[in-house]
TrEMBL record:
Classification lineage: Bacteria, Pseudomonadati, Bacteroidota, Flavobacteriia, Flavobacteriales
Protein name: FAD-dependent oxidoreductase
Organism domain of life: Bacteria
Organism name: Thalassobellus suaedae
Domain named FAD dependent oxidoreductase: residues: 3-247
SUPFAM superfamilies in the record: FAD/NAD(P)-binding domain
Matching Gene3D superfamilies: D-Amino Acid Oxidase, subunit A, domain 2, FAD/NAD(P)-binding domain
Any Pfam family matching the protein: DAO
């Protein structure tokens, strides 16, 4: 049994806590908030093997720059005058190549399918209950340019072994009669599913509390200590926490902090 600290109690942190607790480890979740709000509670709840195109794709930079300055966008990164920030943007831009997209597609698809499978596994365990339905996702389009794009992605999805059908307007109307008249068709990804994040997060958190996981809320991790190239403790504004292993699962940390962690070998195991 190991003592494990998870930094970040969003969906990634709580799911990591679930599997680590099931394996018998002593788990503590540290979070700067009280773990009751945020993206993991309010997102759309889609589990989408269909979303296998990486964000770092050609053409994303123009869209991405707009998103980066909008705090409610799916890709918000707080802009700042910081060398590491510009370095990160530069590296991101460098990776938006066709070759990288091709290399990433099978990996993302596999990750999405495995993640979806884990939700089904959690549901089947009957440890806690949550809403889950697999009736697919419709990617609708209202002009021929979008239709061609969706067609291309659907074609690639078929090549990746995903269950997708292209629907014309009449076929789409039968499945979803309330769409606007402008919609001319859709790609129906039957492989996709959805759940209700808020309910999931609350019931999972309760299960974790009832099964020995410790929560330390309103604790912002500000630094960590490494010995022999291994992280041995993390420091918050009030305390220092020691553990055998540390899991850093959230991605909204200050970029300088992330770089520092990388430099000091985060994710290292003893
Ligand atoms: C509008 C919207 C819709 C979305 N729809 C979907 C969807 O349909 N399907 C899908 O798969 N994804 C969707 N997403 C994305 C999804 O919500 C995120 O990928 C997911 O919530 C990320 O979870 P996380 O646990 O990695 O991070 P978070 O939920 O952000 O959790 C990170 C946690 O770390 C804590 N933290 C941060 N810094 C520190 C620190 N220094 N010390 C201690 N704690 C810290 C934060 O307080 C937070 O609780 C959507 C996102 C948005 C915004």
């Amino acid at each position: 049994m190991k003592k494990v600290i998870i930094i970040g109690g969003g969906i990634s942190g709580l799911c990591s806590a679930y599997y680590l607790a099931k394996e018998g480890h002593a788990v503590t979740v540290l979070d700067q908030s009280d773990i009751s709000t945020g993206a993991s509670f309010i997102n759309a709840g889609y589990l989408t093997p269909s979303h296998f195109i990486p964000l770092a794709a050609p053409g994303i930079i123009t869209q991405g720059i707009k998103w980066m300055f909008n705090s409610s966008s799916p890709f918000y990164i707080k802009p700042r005058l910081d060398l590491d920030f510009f370095k990160w943007v530069w590296l991101f831009k460098k990776s938006t190549t066709k070759l990288n997209v091709e290399k990433s597609i099978p990996v993302l698809k596999e990750l999405n399918l495995k993640s979806q499978h884990l939700f089904e596994e959690m549901l089947a365990s009957l440890d806690f209950n949550f809403y889950y339905e697999k009736k697919g996702v419709l990617m609708a389009f209202s002009n021929t340019k979008s239709e061609a794009e969706e067609h291309e992605i659907a074609h690639r999805a078929l090549k990746e072994g995903l269950d997708v059908t292209m629907l014309n307007k009449e076929e789409l109307q039968k499945i979803q009669p309330v769409l606007s008249d402008n919609v001319i068709g859709a790609a129906h990804y039957k492989c996709d599913s959805h759940m209700t994040p808020n309910h999931f997060m609350v019931t999972l958190k309760n299960w974790l509390k009832n099964n020995g996981v410790t929560f330390k809320v309103n604790q912002e991790v500000k630094d960590f200590t490494a010995k022999n190239n291994q992280i041995v403790s993390v420091t918050t504004q009030t305390d220092t926490f020691e553990a055998d292993d540390f899991v850093l699962v959230q991605w909204q940390l200050d970029i300088t902090f992330s770089f520092k962690i990388k430099f000091k070998s985060a994710y290292s195991r003893r």
